[in-house]
Design brief:
single chain; 236 residues; alpha/beta; Trp Operon Repressor, Chain A; 2 domains; 5-stranded parallel sheet; 8 helices; elongated
Length: 236
Amino acid sequence: MRFHIVTIFPEAFESYMRESIIGRALRNKVISVKFYNPRDFIKSKNKNNYRPVDNRPYGGGPGMIMRSEPVLKAVEKAIPKIKNKKKILIINFIPSAEKFTTGEAKKISEKYTDIILICGRYEGIDARVDKILQQSQNKFLKFKQLSIGDYVLTGGEIPAMILVDCVSRQIEGVLGNFDSREEERVSSSEVYTRPEILKWKGKNYKVPKILLSGNHGKIENWKKSRKGKIYGKYKK
């Protein structure tokens, strides 16, 4: 799986991409991540090499809007590097769009080889970017708007990290044990490890007896009763 990230802040990904499971997957070349900065597609207009990617919104209002041309050129830069054009999915993150889920991550990992992620900033990206990319679907590109939740962030970088993480763990070779994916087994948000009795500030906190019973059928049912708290209506 190859991720192509369009962002004006590629350095925001450095620490997260370098550490833990994602870092190992990158080093082992199970996945790859490349960055495309819209600023690189703007000619400098002054001696300070200032390359603005934003401008004032038509119709008035606060904030600035990311210009369409630099973003589209960054997307176009990524496409020639992809061999199978029918396996490309372009994603733009919009708070009001369809919610991204583990089920969606699984579908993406099975259907596509290359994901282009557009990270907006400021008050958003000129809407013509989405219109142009939606029209391109008729040829070979697939375009989708996604949201990671009912809230607004300062940019699309965090949503992009979330998607890279969630989709990557659906790919065999990323996790040490592929079957350890929580969504593929009976798991819950309520987990325990040693010691059996935790003594904390004069009180004893015990592991639930069911987990110590050795009765695997009852243990599985106990886990199932709590699984929905994290995964909701997710289905394989």
